[in-house]
Amino acid sequence: MKRFFEAFLAAFLLGFVSDVHGLKFYRGHLVGYDIPIGDTSDVTRSTARISTEYYLQRLDHFNPTNKVHWSQKYFVNDAYMSDEKNVVFLYIGGESQASSYWMSNGAWIEFAETHGALLFMLEHRYFGESQPFSDWSTENLRYLSSEQALNDLATFISAMNDKYELPEDVKWIAFGGSYAGAMAAWLRQKYPHLVHGAVSSSGPLFAQLDFPEYLQVVIDDLALHSQECVDNLKEAITQLEDLIQNPNEDEDLNSLFSFCDDIAESANSTSDLANLFELIADNFAGVAQYHKTTNTLYNINLVCEILNDESKGNELHRLAEVNNFVEGITDDSSCFDYKYSNIIEKWSNATVIASGMMRQWMYQTCTEFGYYQTSSQEIPVFGSRFPLSFFTQMCVDIFGEKFNETFVGEKVQHTNIFYGGFDIETSNVVFVHGTIDPWHVLGLIETVNPQTPSILINGTSHCADLYSSSSSDSAELTAAREQIGELLASWISA
C-alpha cells in the first residue's frame, strides 16, 4: 500500500509541475503570472460583459511641457452596475500584465454584486500592453515610478467619470494586492477627492533597503510545521556549502541539483554562489508566500514532509528534491541556472515582452523601494552569501554605475518621506495581511486609527483575502472577508 501511495504521489507531483511549467518565483513574485493557480472558487461567473479598452495616457504628469501620450490598457465590466451608477470599483494593476481573469473572479466581484458596482481594472505603466516606449532601456524607464502610476490612476478616474457620465456623488473604491495593495492606500491618501475608500491587501507600505525579516518569516513559517524541518534545511545548506568547497566523489552536486553549469567552476565566484543560495531561498519563500493560496499542493506541509523524510537520503538529497520540484525540473531537458552573469544578461535585456516583469520591477526596487530579501538573519538558515551588497551590485550591473547602494538608499528614504511609511495619514482604508505572508512585516497589522483598520488573518498568506470565497476557506479568512464587506457597506452608505 505504501509503495502504491508513493507511486501515485510521484505521478501527481509530476502532473502538477507540468501544469505550472514555467512558473517561477523570484524575490517575492510569481514571474509572469497574475492569476491564482488552481483557483478553488465555488462559483463561475459570466465574462460576456467584460471588454478591453485603451486610454490615451500622459507620459510625464510632472512636466506640463511634455505632451507625449501613450496607450494604456484597461478592462471594464458593467454586468453588476446599478441604474444609479453611483458605485465604482477599481482593481489596480500591479507589477505584471493585467489579466481579465480578475474581471469575473475574486472577492471584489462578490462585493460588486452586493453594491451594484461598475468595474474597472487599469494596467500599470510599463507592464503588459501598457508600454510608453518600444524598449525598456534605462533611459526610457525613467518615467516608471509609483508616483507617475498614481497620477495615471487619478487621470483615468477623471476620464471615466466623464466617459460614463457618472454622477457627482459617485464613490470609487480601490482594490489592490501586494505592491498594488500599497498603491490602493496611497491612491486614497493622495487623491481623497477622487477615491472614497480602498482595500489594501498585503501592501508593503514601508520601503526598506535591507529586508532580512522577509526570510525570517519564511523560516518561522517552516517552523510552524516542525523545528525539525528548519533544522534539516539548515543542515542541508551547510552540507551544500561544504561540498562546493570540498568536492566529494560520492556526491555529484551537478546531477543532484541539475545544475546547468559545473558548480566546480563557480566554487570561488562570490556572485555565482550568492545567486545560487538566493535562488534556493527564493523557492522556499515562494512556498511560504503562496502557501495554499495558489494551489493546495504548493505549500509548506509538502516541502517539510520531504525535508523530514529520511528515506529520501541525507538532508542534502532532500533539499535537492525540494529544489528540483519547485523549479519544475522533471527531466534531463531542464536544468537549474545559477550563473550570476546569465541573470544579469537576462534582466539587462531591454526588449519589451508583454509577459515580462522583472526588469521593470527591479528598476522600481532600485529607484523606490529596496525590499531586498537578504541573508542577514541572526541565525542564517539559508547561509549568509547574499547580503545587501549582492542586491545593490545587481542594480549597478543592470542599470549602471549611478544606481549604487547610496543612490538606492536615498530613493528608499524619499519613498517613505513621500508616502509616510507606517505613519500614513488617510481614512477609509482597510489594511489586510496574513500571518504567514512574509510581506506583512512591512504593512500595518495593528489598528492605530479606527478610520484605517487593520485585519491580520491567522494562517493565511499573500493576498488570500482577494481570491474568490470558497467552501474550503478557513473560518478566519471568511470572517475577514465579512469584515471587509461591512466596511465597504459603511463607506458606500456614508
From TrEMBL:
SUPFAM superfamilies according to UniProt: alpha/beta-Hydrolases
Signal peptide: 1-22
Tree of life domain: Eukaryota
GO BP term (any one): proteolysis
Pfam families: Peptidase_S28
Keyword Ligase recorded: no
UniProt keyword annotation of Signal present: yes
Protein keywords: Glycoprotein, Hydrolase, Protease, Signal
Gene3D superfamilies the UniProt entry points to: alpha/beta hydrolase, Serine carboxypeptidase S28, SKS domain
UniProt protein name: Serine protease K12H4.7
Organism from which the protein derives: Aromia moschata
Upper classification of the organism: Eukaryota, Metazoa, Ecdysozoa, Arthropoda, Hexapoda
